Amino acid sequence: MMHMTFYWGRSVTILFDSWQTNSWPGYFLSLFALFLFGAFYQYMEERRLRLKLLSVAKPPPYSAAEAPLLNKLGGLRWGPYQIAGAVLFGVNSAIGYFLMLAVMSFNAGVLIAVVVGLAAGYLAFRGGDEDVVVVDNPCACA
């Protein structure tokens, strides 16, 4: 039976039919795993933002006078920084959507584990980054 309102309890299916908890130790291990996934999401986001800063800090290999069309189109130069940034964005988006789907199990413990994991990860990996300002993330969970 799928719950349509938040509930407390140890019996929950998280993401897959094979990830079911029916005992307290299994439930708490699952909550700990979701906590770690939330913290890992913030770690990966911090790595992606650092990579974006590296790619912006590196001067383009051409001047605007040499290739004005490329400069107007937003820079069609795909270098290793841009490709790595796209891969990190894809991985981070997948982790974020998996966390969202886990919360949609409507188990209150799962919600708390994910939110606390995201907050702890932010504090550990992104809390002191006042110099990193990038506002291009369309995900609501960032």
From TrEMBL:
Its main location: membrane. It is found in: Membrane. It is a multi-pass membrane protein. It comes from the Eukaryota. The chain crosses the membrane at residues 24-44, 81-100, 106-125. One of its GO terms (cellular component) is plasma membrane. Keywords: Copper, Copper transport, Ion transport, Membrane, Transmembrane, Transmembrane helix, Transport. One of its GO terms (molecular function) is copper ion transmembrane transporter activity. InterPro entries: Cop_transporter. Belongs to the copper transporter (Ctr) (TC 1.A.56) family. SLC31A subfamily. This is Copper transport protein.
